[in-house]
Design a protein that fits this description.
Strand order of the largest sheet: 1-2
Number of strands: 2
Distance between the termini: 79 Å
Number of helices: 14
Order of helices and strands: EEHHHHHHHHHHHHHH
Number of domains: 2
Length: 292
Amino acid sequence: MYDAGEKQVGGRRLRSSVYASLVDDRTINPTEIPPEHDPRLVEGTRTQRQRLAQLSPVQRATLVLERYPELRTLPRCDWRRLSVQAAFSALFGESARHYARLELAALAGVLASAGVSAMYAKDLEIAARRVLELLRQRFGIATPLAITLDVWEAWGSDAELMRTLTDRVEKYAAAVNFHLADYRQRLSREDQAHVDHLLLPPLPNQFRQRFVPVAERRAEARRKRKIKTDVVSECAMAILALMLARYPRWSGSSTGIASRSIGSKPANLASQHGWCTRTTNWTCPANLAPTR
């Protein structure tokens, strides 16, 4: 925890956590970005992304904090760890045009500071945007602060919608109920009250257990994996039989391997398909035998 004492900065007395954030930021503000590398001076997402990639982490942090000055007071956030993708999304991408752009930018900073990979952070951001957009369309909200418990309950009661949003809701919970919750716990109560309006609202307790059919989705995923595994197993047996028929000299040295390969199968599986017998004398189906 940061010290809850106060320090003097520019004639004002600030809490130590806010002071630490401003001290870190003072090393970023003086950074100048050459016009030929400034992504704000060009159009087109490709060119903007290329210019962002040419900047240093400190320079990208400068642009994000200039766009969202409210985020300067977020304690324990190292904005220099933002990836190029996260910085682009906050400055020029879909998150920059979202009604919750400030909260999404704060989420990006927290995830980057926690060491979340750029790819996974992108997935979490996309899921959060989708959930927030659906809430806006359904209830006409204009700010995440308007998402109350009643809003979550009414939204979750749509069973058909929840079946299509299992993955999105799970990732929103990972981003907000896990990563942001962990970030909140590391702050003092005073800091929590100071920055809480910058953070996305979490899902209510037991929301996923009550409304999201996670068990059904996992059962369906297991069923699909089993189908693929069964197909691969059958193909492996056929390929092995073909190889032994094509190269008879292998049969003597391979019978031990072949026996072990089918040992985990039912005893009559090999004879049922005509690939081998229960002894080590391998035969090949007539329609699979190689032509000479």
